[in-house]
Design goal:
Elements lengths: L2 E8 L3 H16 L5 E9 L3 H11 L3 E3 L2 H6 L5 E4 L6 H10 L3 E4 L7 H14 L3 E3 L7 H11 L6 E9 L20 H4 L3 H17 L2 E9 L4 E3 L6 E3 L5 E8 L4 E7 L8 E8 L2 E6 L5 E6 L10 E4 L23 H17 L7 H20 L3 E2 L2
Parallel strand pairs: 1-2, 1-4, 2-3, 4-5, 5-6, 7-12
Antiparallel strand pairs: 7-13, 8-11, 8-17, 9-10, 11-12, 13-14, 14-15, 15-16
Helix pairs in contact: 1-9, 4-5, 5-10, 6-8, 8-10
The structure holds nicotinamide-adenine-dinucleotide (NAD).
Nicotinamide-adenine-dinucleotide (NAD) binds next to helix 1.
């Protein structure tokens, strides 16, 4: 017997599509799950556009005001896929309406907002998760398993980058539909909340708590035309950010993100160096995990490139897909997140990262931005 989970999707952009693909695929590849997503309603401000999205992706109905969506008894869960400045208001209202919430990252504009959101979901007792989807790339999950098994031993270094190059032109405006990421009022911050937040979520999942940070940020293009006013306005986001940190386990962290690294589109990489072994991962080659083990026999010792496609149960999630050697991609991380969320409803075990888990990432982002301003080390939290 399967149970329906009636979904209300808010936003039909990049993430609206990525998540909907996850909801549509999940029952085919995870047939054992008790809950089945039902695409009940899609919501966005423009009726014509949201209807076109609903028709294309198979939503049963549309709404142009998320408040109306939240009033509906036929909606069990809402998925917040809108710019960051809208997360808090929608999430708190959704919790008060008793809806389960799947919210995009970063959880909020800052820690204070995120704390209010956590309190709202905890008070309402509604299931919640934040879409830090990279945790569910099989190679990244495998890295987590290897670390938890102790394969790396004591960890000394954690290094991560997230590099892009799409905002180098001075002519690119800020604000509005596609460019809200350049507008601090909609995004909260620049690469810190948009890109480093992903690196931080993975880092704290793999390597534990961060105690303190020291950071620098830069805004290379100081003024851009705002699409809403047509006027040149000061740019309030960080175009680039680099920070050092200390983890509670004694290891050192080094993080860098920019949208000014010509040639790089979405180069998310991390490397972890432990006492016995090191691992490396690269989003452009997301189905591989590079592994070096010093305990290997000397003449064979070297970096090995693990093609994370074994479906015999050794490689996370891969038993759900094809045959060994055939890889999956970016969109599957969202299918996995949906599957884990549905499973969490069966077991009653929260689906991480919960709002509370994602607040930890927000606290680190705030400490990073605070340190870039103050010029000194900042404690997290
Ligand atoms: N997990 C990831 O890897 C990842 C990737 C991209 C974006 N994101 C996050 O997802 C969220 C959305 O980003 P995106 O790239 O999908 O943006 P997008 O610009 O592609 O889409 C935003 C959507 O929000 C809708 N919207 C704006 N205001 C609204 C309102 N008041 N009511 C209803 N709908 C409204 C727009 O119509 C649009 O459909 C952001 O929080 C972003 O940080 C996460």
């Amino acid at each position: 017997m399967t149970k329906p989970l009636n979904l209300g999707m808010i936003g039909y952009g990049f993430m609206g599509r990525a998540h909907t693909n996850g909801y549509k695929r999940v029952a085919d590849f995870f047939p054992e799950l008790e809950y089945r997503p039902v695409l009940k309603a899609a919501c966005a401000r423009n009726q014509e556009k949201v209807q076109a999205f609903a028709d294309q992706w198979g939503y049963e109905s549309t709404e142009t005001d998320w408040r109306e969506l939240l009033k509906r008894d036929d909606i069990d869960a809402v998925d917040i896929c809108v710019p960051n400045n809208l997360h808090k208001e929608i999430a708190i209202a959704a919790a008060e309406a008793g809806k389960m919430i799947l919210c995009e990252k970063p959880i909020a504009m800052d820690t204070a907002e995120g704390e209010e959101m956590c309190q709202a979901v905890e008070k309402a007792g509604v299931a919640n998760t934040v879409w830090y989807n990279y945790r569910r790339v099989p190679a990244v999950t495998l890295a987590k398993n290897l670390i938890d098994e102790g394969k790396l031993g004591r960890i000394f270094h954690y290094r991560a980058n997230f590099l892009q190059d799409w905002t180098i032109s001075e002519d690119l405006p800020q604000g509005g539909a596609a460019l809200w990421r350049l507008d601090a009022a909609a995004a909260g911050s620049g690469v810190t909340g948009d890109l480093l937040a992903h690196c931080i979520d993975t880092a704290i999942w793999l390597n534990g708590k961060v105690d303190n940070v020291t950071a620098m940020t830069e805004t290379f293009i100081k003024e851009r035309v705002h699409t809403e006013t047509g006027e040149k306005q000061q740019v309030g986001i960080d175009d680039a950010c680099a920070f050092l940190c200390r983890f509670s386990n004694g290891s050192l962290g080094l993080f860098e993100s920019t949208r000014y690294a010509r040639g790089h589109k979405a180069l998310y990489t991390f490397e972890i160096n432990g006492e016995h072994a090191s691992i490396k991962w690269d989003l452009h080659d997301l189905h591989r995990l590079e592994y070096f083990d010093h305990r290997d026999e000397g003449k064979l010792r070297g970096w090995r490139s693990i093609h994370v496609t074994d479906n015999g149960g050794e490689h996370p999630y891969m038993d759900k897909w094809w045959v060994p050697g055939l890889q999956i991609g970016y969109e599957h991380s969202f299918v996995h997140h949906v599957a884990d969320f549905l499973k969490s409803l069966e077991t009653g075990t929260p689906c991480g990262p919960t709002f509370r888990d994602a607040l930890e990432t927000q606290k680190i982002c705030d400490a990073v931005l605070g340190s870039a301003k103050s010029g000194s080390w900042e404690q997290v939290g």
